[in-house]
Structures are given as structure tokens and as C-alpha cells.
Amino acid sequence: MVTVSTTSAPCLRLVMALAPSLGTSSLLPSPETSSYQIRISNLKRILPKKRKTLAYRFSVGGRLSTWPAYASGQAILQNRKPCCSPEERSNKQASLTIAKPRYLEELESYLRKELQSLDLTKENAQELKLQPYREIFEFFIEDFKTYKPLLSAIKNEYEVTLAHLKEKIHSLEPLKAMLVSVSDECTRQIVALQEEEKAEVTMLKKEKLYLLKLIDKMKEEKESLQAQVNKLRKNVAKEYVRYLNECDARKLLLADLNEMRNQQLEMSLRQVQDVKGEDLVKLTLALKVARQDLTKAQVELNTMKADYGDVVPRRDFESQEKKYSDLLEKMEVLQKNFDDVQKEYDTLLEIHQEAVEERDRFYNELQQVQRSSTPRPNWAKCSEVVSGGAERWSYLEEGKTSDQLVDVLLEEIGTGVLKEKDTFPGLGKGDKVPVYLRYEGQVKNRKLNKKEVVNILKEIWKEKVSADQQKGKQSSLPEFFLSYLQKRYGDVSAFEWSYTIYENIKLYRSNEAMSLFYDILSGKVDEGLYHGQNQLVSNLLKELTASDSSNSGTLTTEQFNTALKAAFPLKTSDQIQELKDASRCKVESTEDLIDYRSLFAEDEEGNPEPFIAKVKSQHASEKQEYLRELRSELGNTLEVKVDDLKTAFCAIDPVIDDLTLDAYICLAFQASKEQWDQTVSLPMDTVIERLLAGDTRRIGPLPEETYKSLSEGGEAGAYIYC
């Protein structure tokens, strides 16, 4: 056996030295444990002197005490076997009093001191706590030289296992972090899916409610129809029973009539035989039988009179029934006419009441005006100031109110002031300044007249429509206005033209072309209004041209009336008559022909003919009436939501298509269809104002007219839902 000294030789060297002598390869360190054993050896070098001192002090000459393993300094109870004899039991009890060896006590004391000196609040407290036990175990290995190889092997295996487990824990740390991140990602995905499902569930719930309402309505219609069917069945059953009774009675009458004819024939034959001279007995017997038959016939006749005394002939019955049906139809017609007259009377009564109230209001206003107003100005005095004299002033004041005449005077005054200006002051380059007016310094006044400005505006509209068609989307008018002027006149002169045009269109508010361009340019009106008016006039011209089969440029009054009704199917007869009167206002010929092409002409300042002006004014009035119905349908709601507005449009205009409805809602809320879910409610006045500024019009007839037309066409059940 190889003897190992108690000096501070490392554990790894000791095992390497003992392995050949013991003849075992299990004690040699494996490649897996080499790294950890190096760390153990480094750790052991920290306290080499302490280990030598303790090892020398705890073992005296390398010899250990033989204190039994089951003994301690105090009395320890041992498990005793039930089969032990009393002598053995007494020997064991005597051994309990053996004192604990001093070496063991010092080791335990050393362990307690080391454990008390450790800071167990650190993260590696368990490893620090394990170190004193390692040192105690090292002392045992060093002192028990006989068992040193075995104890070293046991210690190495534990150390290798601990190292392997630590490396495994370290390798699992990234997996734990990845697991946490994957768990968070899955949680986020689940939350997102729940949000999507929530929106879908909300939409399905709304659809469910709508379908339930539709089902309830159809159930009500079914119950109503079923009640009508039951009533008709009862009437048919009654009529059938009455018919059977009349048929049976008729058959009985015919049978009795045939029997009476036979009896009469027999009597006539008997009379003939009497004339020929037959037997008296036979004649007596025949007379008796005849009397019996007569009595029977008399009884039957009385019975028939009693049963059918109130029965009339079928011919009379059918005649009376026909008269009754005719009278019933006349009565129904008269009742319908009476109901119509009653409704007209009620309507006229309401109109009369309104007229009386309006008359009283106007009378009160007249009294107030007479008390507070000044005399009406003498507009003829303006002819002396306006350029062109009385002739031009008579043309300007024709058909205008006092307010409009004030606008005309302001335009005339502004025209003079505008012509005297040589430059305009620039408004600067701030963000609040429109892009076409962003200029610093003085801008030259080009001094354009109305005709020149109107021609430039027409060219701008023409170029913009062409550019928008090429791009496939609508561009901003202010930006296009500036780019057009820069392209045509250059960057330097563009602002001179833009300022000059802007000042002119701002001044001439009575000119329709300038006024509309100014409202769209300043954002007061949507550009769709201009395109809608052009489309309206274009469709009217197409209908009139289609009616002109000879392409002569003229139409008869009947053809013109038919074309107007085809172009404007929703207009009333009064509105059609107004258009016909407007088309005749400048016609001097008495012929029944209308030069429809001249109705679309414009003067040099861009003002349309009275016919087109009347078409546009009617269109504006119809839009206002349409929006008035929309406001009435929305009720007293202060805030309007997307769904509320959609429902109101469908109620007042049932045949409106989805594209037009979406366009109206986008115009009202200034948001695209994708942004509707995020759109909050808007005030009622804001919604109506935005719709009034755009091209809003009725698509189909009124709901009452729609229902009436469907009923007359046999399609009363074909309701149209938005």
C-alpha cells in the first residue's frame, strides 16, 4: 500500500497516485470532470495552511479514536430489537454513556463557526454553505488514509455530478428566456384574436337583431294573410251551403212541375176517352183518382207556396244581383271620391289656416316695417353714377331685389377701385395663407375684366378635369390652380395672375361662374357640386338630342315635354311647367317649336340662359328639401352617428345605392369608409352643412310613391331595404 502524507497535497494528485496501486480505473478523472476539478484545486489552494493546521490538530500521529459511530456525548436512544436478551440490552445501554471524541467535537465546532461567518443573503449562498462541508470532508479524506481512495472517488463523483447539473441548468437558462418570450408573444396573439372576434361578434349581433326584426315583420304579414285566408274560407263555405240549398230547391221544383204536367196529360187523355164513350164505372173510378190527385196536388201546391213563397225567379235574382253590384261599384267610387274630397278639404283647411297665420304675421311685420323702416330708395338715381347710363342700369336691375341691387352697386364700386390699383400687398408665406397666395412683397395687378376671368376659369376647369381623369383621382383645386398658372405664365408671373383672379372672383359674387369657383377654392363648397351641375346639364342635353331624330336643333312642345320628363323623372308637373315657361321666355315666334340648343348658351360673362338657371335653382331647392327631410327623419338628435345617418338616408330614399350612400356619409363625416369605426358622432348642424355644400340629391322617388308604384305593378311585397 502507498502511504500518503498529511501535507496539503491536492485531492486530484492523491487520487492519481492511489489509482495504480489500487488497480482500478474508476478513480481516474474523466475528461468531463477535468475542468471542474481544476476549479476545485484552485479553491483548495486558498486555505492550505488552515487545512494543515486542522489536520494536524485533529489527528494525533495519524491515528484516530475508536469512538463508536452510534455514540455521542449525550445519551442517545437506539432502536432495540424485540428479540434481544436482557444481557445484550444492558451491554448496549452501558455503551451509550461513552463520550464523543474530541476530534469530532472540534470538527463540529469548526463547522458551526464557518457557517456562522457566511453571508447567506447573497445569490450563491448555497455554494458558500457547501464549502465548509467540503473542507470537513477533505479533512476526513486526509485523516482516514486507509479509506482515502474510496472517499476521494465518492467525492469526485459527487463533484462531477454537481458540475454536470450546473452546466445543464446554465444551458437551460436561454431556453427559459425563450419560453417566456414565446409565452408573451402567444398571449399578445390571443388578445389580438379576441379583439378581432369581439368586433366580428358585435357585427354578427347587429345582423342578428336586424334579421330578428325582419322575421317578426314577416310573421306579422303571415298572420295577417292567414287571417284573411280564414275569413275567405268562411265566406266560401257559407256561399257553398247557400248554393247547395238553392240547387236542391230548384231540383224539387222541377220534379213537382214534371209531375203536374204528367197529371195534366193524363186528365186530357181521360177527357178524350170520355168523349169516345167509355164505361161509367171506369170514369167514376178515374174521377175519384183524379180528385185524390187533385187533393194531393193541392196539398203539395200549398206546401210549395209556404216553402217557396219568398223565392224569386233566377232571372230576376241575377238581374237584381247585377244591379246591386253596379250600384256597389258606383257607391265605392263615390265613397273614394268623397274621401279624396274630404282629404282635399282638410288640406285646404290647413292651408287656409296657415295662410291666415302667415297673413297675420306678414301684417304684423308690415306694421313693424312701416313704423321702423326707411322709405324705399330710388334706384333710378344709380343710372347717373353707373357707367353705361340708364340703359345699362335698367339691364342690371332687371328682376333683382333690393339686396341684390346693393350687391350690384358694391360690384360696380369695387370694379372701379380694383382698376385703380396697380399692385396688391402679398399675404406672406405662412401656413394659414392659401398656397396660391403665398407671396411676400407687392404683386402686380393684371387688371382683367369679367370676360377674361371667366375664360381663364373655364380653361382651368377643363385642364383639371382632364388631369384628374388621367390620374384616376381628384386633385386639390388650390394646388392645381397655382400649378396651372405657373405652367402657363411662369413661376414669377403666376402669383400676379392668382392675386388678380382671386380679387375679381371675390368681388363679383353675382356672377355664377366666379362665385362657384371662389366658394370651391376657399373650401366653402365641395368640388363635387360643380361636377354634379355639369352632369345634370349634360344629361338633359343628351335627352333633348336623343328626342331630336332629325337633328334639326328644334323640338315640338310635346317632344320637349317628353324629354324633360325622361331627364327629370322625379320632378313634379309644376316644376316641368316652370322649365317649359323658362324655355319660352325669349322665344318670339308663335310656332310650336323650341330651339333647345340655344337654351344651353351663355353670355360673354359666363351667365347661363334663364332655362339652365331655372334647372340649377330647382336642383338647389330640391337638395334643400331633401336635407330638410333628412333632418326631420333624424329628429331632435344633437349628435349624429354613422349608423344613424345611414338609416335616415335609407328611410327617406329607399332606392339609394350603396356607392352613393357611402359617398354621402364620407362627405358628411370627412372620413373614408375604413375610418368609420373610429369616427365619433358629429353635431346635426355640422352634418347638414357639409351635405349642403356637396352634390347631394335624391336618387329615387319618395317612399309613399315607391310603395304606390310597386302596388300598382303587382309587386307590393317587393320591399327594398338598404
Describe the secondary structure blueprint for this structure.
Layout: H1 11-22, H2 31-44, H3 48-58, H4 86-95, H5 102-117, H6 125-143, H7 148-276, H8 280-308, H9 314-372, H10 389-396, H11 402-420, E1 423-425, E2 442-444, H12 450-471, H13 477-507, H14 512-521, H15 528-547, E3 554-556, H16 557-567, H17 573-583, E4 593-595, H18 610-634, E5 639-640, H19 642-652, H20 658-669, E6 682-683, H21 684-692, H22 703-712
Antiparallel strand pairs: 1-2, 3-4, 5-6
How would you sum up this structure in a few lines?
With 722 residues, the chain is mainly alpha-helical. The protein has helices spanning 11-22, 31-44, 48-58, 86-95, 102-117, 125-143, 148-276, 280-308, 314-372, 389-396, 402-420, 450-471, 477-507, 512-521, 528-547, 557-567, 573-583, 610-634, 642-652, 658-669, 684-692, 703-712; strands spanning 423-425, 442-444, 554-556, 593-595, 639-640, 682-683.
Written overview of the protein:
The chain is mostly helical. Among the domains are: 164-305; 314-371; 421-524, no CATH class; 526-624; 635-722, no CATH class. Helix content is 69%, strand content 2%. It contains 22 helices and 6 strands. The chain has helices at 11-22, 31-44, 48-58, 86-95, 102-117, 125-143, 148-276, 280-308, 314-372, 389-396, 402-420, 450-471, 477-507, 512-521, 528-547, 557-567, 573-583, 610-634, 642-652, 658-669, 684-692, 703-712, and strands at 423-425, 442-444, 554-556, 593-595, 639-640, 682-683. The strands form 3 sheets. It has a two-stranded antiparallel sheet. Strands 3-4 form a two-stranded antiparallel sheet. It is flat. The two termini are 106 Å apart.
